[in-house]
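explain this:
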Amino acid sequence: MARVVTPIDLMNTSLQFVTLMAETQTVMAYRMMGMAGLWSVTPHEKKRMINEKGPAFMEAVLAGTMTAARGQSPDRVMRATMAPLSRTTASNRRRLAKRGPNTK
């Protein structure tokens, strides 16, 4: 029998989603500032942002599908789907934040 989803489960899923959205926007802002010459980014950043999407989304789809196939609740499926994307955006945010503004 499936476990009952509690309000705390839904709040945790919502918090993970909001965190993913905020980190995604932060990474996009760093990269846009980098393209404008305001943030220090490597010359390979444009290529990196394109090349990372496919594997990250494939991992997310696989994680969500496997969780759903095991009969888990919808909130767990969503969290499993978001987890690989959250790892990627968090890693990018930390990496880009360390680079700092372009002072040249």
Observations:
- The longest helix spans residues 7-35.
- The two ends are 61 Å apart (CA to CA).
- DSSP finds four helices and no strands in the chain.
- The chain has a mean pLDDT of 95.
